Amino acid sequence: MDVVAACRAFVAVSGHGSFTSGAAAAGIPQSVASRRIAALEDHVGARLFDRSSRAVRLTSFGQDMLPTARRLVDLADAMTDDAERARLRPLRVAVPEICPPHRLATLVAAARRQRIHLEVRPAGPQERARLCQALEVGAGIVAVPDPTAAWRVPLGLAARTPFPAPTVYLETLRSGRARTQARRRILIQPEDDVAHLRDPLTRAGQSTGLAPAQVTVAPSLVDAAATALGSPDLLLCSRQQAEDFGLHWCPLAGPPLVRGYDVAAGVRDDLEQFRTVLHADIARCLGAPDNHRTSLGGATPGHRRAKDPT
What we know:
- The chain is of the alpha/beta class and 310 residues long.
- It is rod-shaped.
- Helix 1 (3-16) crosses helix 3 (30-44) and helix 2 (19-26) packs across helix 3.
- The model is unreliable at 292-310 (pLDDT under 50).
- The chain contains 10 helices and 11 strands.
- Strands 3, 4, 5, 6, 7, 8, 9, 10 and 11 form a 9-stranded mixed sheet that branches.
- It folds into 3 domains: 3-88, Arc Repressor Mutant, subunit A; 91-147 and 260-286, 3-Layer(aba) Sandwich (D-Maltodextrin-Binding Protein, domain 2), CATH 3.40.190; 154-258, D-Maltodextrin-Binding Protein, domain 2.
C-alpha cells in the first residue's frame, strides 16, 4: 500500500466532508479514493470515517489520526520540492579558458535538456586542478596525458601564411647561416603549459637544433595569437583555434602532440553523463574531433597548403 497516497486521500476527503469532492480535490476518481482509505483503515486497524449516514464524518479515531496524516502529506510534498530544487541547483564546473563562449553556451543548453544545470568557471590547467582538489567546484575538465584522456585534441602549428607541405618538421625552423635571418619561435599558450605537452616539444626542439628561445610559453592565448598574426612566429594550437583566429594550421611531423582531457572531482551521479550524453558537446567546446579515438599519426585531411611562409 502507498501510505502517502492513502493519507492524501484521507486528508482530502476529511477536509471536504465528501468522498466525491475530496477525490476531485486530490485529482483521483472517487472509487480510487474509497479504495485507498479502506486500505489505510485496514493498515491502522480501525475505521477513520463513520459511513452510517449520508454525511461523511470522522470517527474519534479518525480525528486522532488526521494530524499525523497531514504531517506525512506535508513532509512528502516538502521532499518533492527539495528534490526539484536539488535538481535545479547549478553544478559548478571548471572548464578550459580556451573554450569559446558560444560553444560553452551550447554545452550548458544541452546539459539543461538532461536536467543538469551547469555553472561554468573558465580557468587555466593548474587552476582547474586546484579547484577540483579543493572541492571548490563540483567537477572539472582537467588536463591529462593522452592515453588516459576521454577527449583528445590534436595540436599543430598555426601561421599567418599557408604551409608548403602536409606536415611541419621542426628542423626547418632552424635559423640559416645568415645571422640577420630571424629565428621563428613556437609559442606555447598557457593551456598547453603542462609537462606532458611542453616538455616533449622542448626536447624535440633541442634535438633538432632549435635555440632554447625558439620554444617559449606566451603569457596568454590572445598575446600568442596576436604575435602569430603579426610576425612569422608560430602558435601551437588546435585546428579549431587556428580557424577562430584566421590562421593556417598544419600538424607537426613525428609523434603527435595531443591535449588530453577528462572529468575530475565531484560525487554527483550525473557526472558520468559528461562522458556519455554530453560527450559530443564537450568535444566541440574543446576543439576535439568528432571521433576522439581516431589515430592521429600523419596529416589530417583538409589542411591548408600553399607557398612556404619563410
